[in-house]
Every structure is written in structure tokens, then in C-alpha cells.
């Protein structure tokens, strides 16, 4: 099954303000999901941001949740999340984040999901000067 522009209709891996109990979860996800479960993304590092974290490709693990949109809400949800994450499309120089397909791991195994990673210039800046979040869990930081 595909979504807009022929993209696959994948669940979303969320690791910051969209996690259950965080303010953007209630604003954007409440009532729009069919399932939510704990998950981990391997091959990424987490960095502090201005009130939210950034995931960057790297040698680590990020803790979050796999969120499956209710089928009738998928198209609207992907559009809302792209706006929230300032993702304007592949290769757009305005992107703060990029939405990419990655395998995330749940209790039942690996699942393909959309993940918002820091866009190229942001990722380079974070690697050079950013503050890593030890353990890759934004909710558990001190």
C-alpha cells in the first residue's frame, strides 16, 4: 500500500516530543493512531536540540516508539508531521529534518518505518558542536 507520491505507507518512529506523554503527542497523534509500541533505532545518535532532540546517523541506538497511523488518518498525519519536522521534500535546502525509511526494532522484530533525521547541514553542525544524549533516550535524560 502506498501513500502520497507513491511512497510506502509506513509507521513512524518517534523519539522526542511526539512520544506518549509529551506535548506534541497529544497535539498531533492523539486519535490518529492505530497502535503505538516501544521501539529502538540502531545506527543513530541522539543530540539535544532547542526543546526537542535530533537523531543523526551514527554508531548508537535511539529509544522511542513505533506509531502506526489509523488507516483513514495516514495521509493527513504524514502531511502534519512533515510540516512539524520542517521536511519539505527530498533534497529541499529548507529541510530541518529528512524523512527516511529505516528498520526499527520492536519486541516482535525489525519493522520498516519512517524516521525524521537531522538534515545534512544540521547533522554536520551537531556532530561538530552538539551535545549528545547519553544512552539515546531523550525521555530518560537528566
UniProtKB/TrEMBL annotation:
Record-linked CDD domains: GGCT_like
Entry-linked InterPro entries: AIG2-like_dom, GGCT-like, GGCT-like_sf
Location of the Gamma-glutamylcyclotransferase AIG2-like domain: 12-139
Pfam families in the record: GGACT (PF06094)
SUPFAM superfamilies reported for this sequence: Gamma-glutamyl cyclotransferase-like
Name of the featured protein: Gamma-glutamylcyclotransferase AIG2-like domain-containing protein
Species this protein is from: Streptomyces tirandamycinicus
Amino acid at each position: 500500500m502506498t501513500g502520497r507520491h507513491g511512497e510506502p505507507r509506513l509507521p513512524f518512529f518517534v523519539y522526542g516530543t511526539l512520544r506518549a506523554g509529551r506535548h506534541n503527542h497529544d497535539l498531533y497523534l492523539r486519535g490518529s493512531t492505530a497502535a503505538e509500541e516501544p521501539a529502538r533505532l540502531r545506527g543513530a545518535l541522539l543530540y539535544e536540540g532547542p526543546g526537542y532532540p535530533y537523531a543523526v546517523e551514527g554508531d548508537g541506538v535511539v529509544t522511542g516508539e513505533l506509531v502506526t497511523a489509523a488507516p483513514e488518518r495516514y495521509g493527513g498525519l504524514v502531511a502534519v508531521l512533515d510540516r512539524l519536522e520542517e521536511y519539505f521534500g527530498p533534497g529541499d535546502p529548507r529541510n530541518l529534518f529528512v524523512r527516511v525509511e529505516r528498520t526499527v526494532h520492536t519486541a516482535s522484530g525489525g519493522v520498516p518505518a519512517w524516521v525524521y533525521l537531522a538534515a545534512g547541514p544540521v547533522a554536520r553542525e551537531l556532530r561538530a558542536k552538539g551535545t549528545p544524549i547519553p544512552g539515546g533516550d531523550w525521555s530518560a535524560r537528566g
